[in-house]
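In response to reviewer comment 3 from the previous cycle, which asked for concrete evidence that the modeling workflow produces usable outputs, we include below a single protein chain processed end to end. The sequence was submitted unchanged, and the resulting structure tokens are shown without manual editing.
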Amino acid sequence: MGASLERMIRPQPFSTRLRLMCGGLPVLVAAAALAASPSAAATRESLKTPLLADIGAAATPITDSILSKRATRSLAAAASWGGTFTTSAGDQVSIHVSDSYPVDNTRAQRWADFLGSLVHGSEISTVQVYLAPLDEVQQYCGQDALACYNPTNKLLVAPGDDPSSELSAEAVVTHEYGHHVANSRNDAPWLAIDYGTKRWASYVQVCSKAQAGQLFPGAESDSRYQLNPGEGFAESYRVLNQHRLGVPESPWQVVSQSLYPDATALSLIQQDVLTHWTEDADAQRRHAARRDVPRHDPRGEGRARRRQPRDEHRRPRRARGRDRDGGADADDDRLRIAHVRRPTEPREGRGADARGRFQGLVQRPTRTPPRSAQARARRPSPRGGAQGALFTNPLQGFSSIPPR
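The workflow returned the following structure tokens.
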């Protein structure tokens, strides 16, 4: 046993080790040659040339997210190529491509022309598109996201090649561009990126359904994502471009079937894209006033109520007990007594008798002063015995109670 162990740990001769090393050397040389061959370079992922017909290639849901500020800062430091490209219609489009793709400005120009072929307005010159492989997109957008959008910087991050065989990059980019369209429209007092554009949201009744708990604007969770009207608008925008270009429509799987657009909804989306909705001056004042209205309605009546402005002529009510210096608050009773309601003169039975009764009511208020301001004292009666009288401080004798 000892000899066997010695043979196991005995170092091998130099010639044996050399044969082992030289035997593995051809394998390493062959692997390096394969990596350097033109065929291996051809297998590297490249930016896809977009096709309008692939807008309808969306057999799986398009899950996206909001690009965070931290991810935006990381993306600004990423290596990329591209720039601003001019479409055939003269629109300036910003297209930046990840350095993971080989540099090909011709394909970047094709993506600018692709966006110019969609239903768009002046917002096309404000979007910043960043195309990258899916694994890099998910580093910025999230593990389960296929794309993302930053409403502040108007930055759109999407894959530059097909995420899967059932979902095209064109479908994802068109969906995300729908978010950019909504973000560039006015839906005051709401955010169009959460509620959709004004005409479409009014037709779908987003506000009333949101109050009833049937829709959830801005929801990004799994349970309420399909009831997010912002996602419904973005997907409806993709369907609009499918119909306009004559592309076969893909299954409606991104959001709830209740948000599927009919012909009227598609027409209103096109109006919102081509003709911006603007509110009049009266609506601007109403919406500015609604900033002071709490969103929660305690009465459950579903209508906004203005907060009542503070009455500048009403003296603030002082706290009971002791004043700021620790002493008794002598003016507390005087303030509360001064607010006794004065009765009005009766309309019927006017005359000497009626006026006399009215004056009697004024001299004897119907409201009894607070108990804290009352002091009970007893004094001798002219007829003997005791008579109870109620005096009020500091207005002593303001009201009285006849003897029992």
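The chain has a mean pLDDT of 74. We consider this sufficient to address the reviewer's concern, and the full set will be provided in the supplementary archive.
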